[in-house]
Amino acid sequence: MSPITTAAQSPTASPSSTPSPEAKTGQSPSSDLAKLESRVQPSVILVTVFDPKGNLLRTQSGFFISADGRLVTTARAIEGGVNAVAKTADGGIYNVSGILEVSKELDLAVLQADVKPRKLLRFLELNKNCELSVGTKVAVVGSALAGSDGSARESTITSHERDRLEVGAATPLNAVGSPVVNDDGEVVGVVISAGERTIARPSAALDSTLTRVAEDNEAHWPATAETRATPRPTPKPRLVYAPAPAFPPQASRPGLSGTGRFRLTFDANGNVTNVQVIQSTGNRLFDESAIQTLRQWRSSPSQGWAVTVPVTFQTR
Q: Which of 87, 170, 201, 234 has CA 20 to 30 A from 120's CA?
């Protein structure tokens, strides 16, 4: 393995809220919209999907709907995929173990991410009681990872049908998969088409999709299930997802550095089952950051294998 080097970057300003198209030029977003954004945005994610060869298929927005890692995105986002990861704005990276339910007719998909039992995951509640009507004030909230494109956009519902909402505000294309929320931060819709016209599925349609998820339903990727049903020789394993560990902000003193070596063990499905410290970086924060990120690595299916990875942290 080639060494991995993580360098501290200069501080950058957090993305600011972008006012809706209806707002006057130069006008700042309202404090209520800013508060709504700060409450909703931590639950909004980017879902990155990979094909059977480990190549990137696409990245689309989504959001968590339960503390155990259930998330919602569009059916188009996962089409042709056999693996995915969900990324949160706080640096979290979660392996998506598979699909729980998908509706191509509604263009909705419910996925399951691997979340540690005691992880305090932020998620959104569905609004099941509100009868939406034309003129109802709503907001489309994207991921903070999308920069200004992910900022909350306030608008109103301009059209409402049984399985279709239309929102007055224009939204960026990467808003597809984002939640449409009310003033309380509850999900009233899921964006399925963005641009000059923003189309969403109402929360009732999403709720009907969720009700089809059985209690004992096990998440899986279709291609993975097909491979298991037809055994064939396992190819030589290779890494398909290997992000570099993030530099701990609290350890970014000038001249601070450290190099360590970590041994990763993968199971047959390509998941990391163990990260062993072969040589510490000499800094507890560096070691913890490396272990947390290396646990998210994925490899192609195999009979199980291990690899030793050198990691270097250094300030610039």
A: 201
From the list 74, 49, 72, 64, the residue with the least C-alpha distance to 119 is: 64
Amino acid at 36: L
Q: Are 16 and 96 in contact (CB under 8 A)?
A: no
C-alpha separations of 16 from 28, 29, 124, 137, 155 in Å: 10, 9, 21, 21, 18
The CA R_g of the chain, rounded to the nearest whole Å, is 21
Alpha helices (H) in 8-114, listed in sequence order: 31-40, 75-78
The predicted-structure confidence for 35-72, as pLDDT tens digits, reads as follows 999 999 999 999 999 988 888 889 999 999 998 899 99
Q: Do 309 and 246 contact (CB within 8 A), yes or no?
A: no
Of 60-69, 131-140, 150-159, the poorest mean pLDDT is in 131-140
Half-sphere exposure of 231 (CA within 13 A, CB side): 2
Helices (H), 177-283: 203-210, 222-229
pLDDT single digits (tens) 105-135: 999 999 999 988 767 888 999 987 767 788 8
Scored b (16 or more CB within 10 A) or e, 223-260 reads ebeeeeeeeeeeeebebbbbeebbbbeebbeeebbbbb
Tell me the two tokens of residue 215: 């209690």
> DSSP string spanning 10-21?
PP-PPPPPPPPT
